[in-house]
Every structure is written in C-alpha cells, then in structure tokens.
Design brief:
Length: 378
C-alpha cells in the first residue's frame, strides 16, 4: 500500500513539473478535455483570482468580487472556464499587426499562426506566456491601447478564455434565463465613444493628411510642409486629443522625412551648380593663361638649348633642356628620328626652336619634347 502511495506522489510531481516547464516555454500544456456546459455564474467570494489556466500554477489575470457575474463555458476538474470579464485583455506582437490611422482602434493581422497570450494586470507582456490561441492573416483585432514592450493590448478573441476555481462560482441559470450584471468582454468591451475634442482633432488630422498627399505630388523644390507640420505638432501637444495625438506624432516623423528629402535635393542641386561654376572659372583662367603665352609659331618650344645636369653625359643617359630668360627650365628634350643624326653640341647655349611633339616627363612630372629638328633663332 505504501509503495502505491509513493508511486502516485511521484506521478503527481512529474505532472506538475511538466506543466510548469510548458508554461515557461510559452506553450499551452496538454490538458484533459473540459466539459462544455454553458450558464451564468455568480462569484461568491471577494478578490477571487481569475487565472490564465486551470490551476494555481497559472498567473492571475484579474480579480472579481461577490455578486460579479460571469459566463461559464465549461469546466475541468475543480476549475471553471469563463469568458474574459470586462476589463480583461490579451497580448499580440506588434510585428504582426498593422494599425490603420484612419480607423482608430482597429488592427489587421499580417501573418499566419500569430500567437495571442492572456493579458494580466500584474505581469508585463514579456512575462505573460499563457498561449490562448492563434490568429491568421487579415484577421481583425480591437486595439485597446498603446504598444507596450513590442506588444499590442487587444480585446480577447473569441477563442480566449480564463479560469476560476469552481468553489467560488455559483450557478444562477442558463444564458437565456439570466442576464449578466457585468457583461463579458465580448459584449461590453467596445471602446467608449470618442470625446468631441477627439472627433474634432481626428477630422483635422485627416484633413492634414490630404494636404500632405497634395504636397507630395508637387516637385520637391515646390513642396512646403511648414504649416502642416506646425498643425500636427499642435494636435500632438493636445492632452485631450488621445488617438489623434498619437497619429499626429507618427505623421510628424513622416513629414520630417519629406522635409529631409527636400533639403537633400536642394543641397545636391546647389553642389551641382557650384561645380558648373567652378569648371567655368577654371576654363576662363585657362583661356586667359593661354592668351598670355607667346606665339611660338611652328615650334613646340623655344629657349636656350642646354645639356640637362640631372642626367649623365653618357649617350644613353644624356638629356637636353630648354631654359627661359630667367634661367628656369621650360622643358626637357630628347632627339628622335632625323635629329639623332645632328651635331647637337653646336646648338648649346643658343636660343633655338624645337619641332616635334610634347609628352609628359615621368621622372619630374614636367614636359618632355621629343624633337626631330632644331632651328637656331639668333
């Protein structure tokens, strides 16, 4: 008998550990089938915990008090499954929901098998790991507030249920015979009608959106967002604007992006104009410099013919150079073709004109004349 009791204890411990690990992993552990009995129940205690699952190891989502009524949709062992009471919510990742500024409070799911978790008034979204079900692309969710830790707070979907210990629920009667004093989230979690200020600011916001679209159609240099941006900032700073303020804050960032694009375009055009002007100045300076050059006639270079001191006197190393009246090197010179047969020594220290072609002198980064003829000028 003792061994049977020990075996039963071990089995229970293993089951509890398995459930705990499953919760920590964010998965819904396997549960025995729950009954599908539906009725209206009344809470018979104060501060009764409403949990994310059928057991005390599941986190608390909210609390109810005496005389609060709930819609019971089933049971499992000593736990009762209920529709989420008013004020309850679920979490869904913001990465899979597209909020529509034109339809406040509405989100469209953008992925398949997107997980929905039971929300809690005492836990952050990242720690709310009880999986309630999954939504698919184009499913509609009702947004209940701003993004928190990359999650949207939403009204619980149809498949979302919570749990309460059966000892705190008294059956009142069928759904047809007994009405709820506190309606379930599926019937009363409609957002409150927006205040006149919100309605007015939303109307103003949509008008500003139309103005933005009009400006975007203009050429960049004609676009002007100053008044639009100032009006959006006014909405953002209006503490009574609620959703309109959030939409305006987001749109201000978009407008700042359009303004930045305009400034970049302006800067690029200005730089292009400055480049054109710089090229024009260079060309004018070059033309002026060319006008100052003496007319050499048929010669490519004119100057005093000398042996270059940079190189040796050996024939394979010997270079010549032309010097101007101030003793500055005009260019280096090397004979080629018919000039190789000439006695070049007779031209030394005399003013000559060279016929040939001008190339660059790699060693000095100056000019090199490869001449085929030398004509004494004086």
């Amino acid at each position: 008998m003792k061994s049977k009791i020990n075996s039963l204890i071990i089995v229970c411990l293993i089951t509890c550990v398995s459930v705990s690990f499953a919760q920590q992993a964010g998965e819904t552990p396997a549960e025995p089938a729950a009954s599908s009995e539906v009725y209206i129940g009344e809470i018979v205690g104060d501060k009764v915990n409403i949990r994310s699952g059928p057991g005390t190891n599941y986190y608390v989502c909210t609390k109810l008090n005496k005389t609060d009524r709930v819609k019971v949709v089933g049971s499992q062992f000593s736990w009762t499954r209920i529709e989420p009471p008013a004020g309850c919510f679920s979490w869904i990742s913001k990465h899979y929901v597209s909020a529509d500024p034109a339809n406040p409070g509405i989100g469209i799911v953008t992925g398949d098998a997107v997980r929905v978790y039971a929300g809690s008034t005492t836990k952050q979204p990242i720690h709310s790991t009880r999986l309630q079900g999954k939504l698919n692309k184009n499913d509609v969710v009702k947004l209940l507030g701003d993004i928190q830790e990359d999650y949207y707070k939403i009204a619980p979907p149809a498949f979302a249920y919570l749990w309460v210990s059966t000892k705190y629920v008294k059956q009142l009667g069928s759904v047809a015979d007994v009405s709820l004093i506190v309606e379930s989230s599926k019937t009363v979690m409609e957002p409150a009608p927006p205040s006149p200020t919100v309605v007015s600011q939303l109307k103003r916001f949509r008008s500003l959106q139309e103005s933005i679209d009009t400006e975007k159609k203009k050429p960049l240099d004609k676009q002007n967002y100053t008044d639009i941006k100032n009006a959006l900032i006014e909405i953002t700073n209006d503490s009574q604007a609620e959703k309109a303020a959030r939409y305006a804050k987001f749109t201000v960032k978009q407008v700042e992006g359009y303004e930045l694009a305009k400034e970049v375009d302006k800067t690029v055009k200005l730089q292009a104009q400055q480049l054109i002007e710089t090229i024009e100045r260079i060309e004018k300076a070059r033309a002026a410099k060319l006008e100052q050059l003496p007319d050499l006639g048929e010669f490519v270079a004119v100057g005093s013919f000398q042996v270059s001191s940079i190189y040796g006197l050996q024939p394979e190393l010997k270079h010549y150079q032309l010097i101007d009246d101030e003793g500055k090197i005009i260019c280096f010179a090397l004979p080629e073709g018919s000039a190789l047969e000439l006695d070049l020594d007779k031209f030394l220290d005399k003013k000559v004109g060279l016929l040939g072609k001008i190339t660059s002198h790699l060693q000095t980064a100056g000019a090199l004349v490869k001449f085929t003829e030398v004509i004494e000028l004086e």
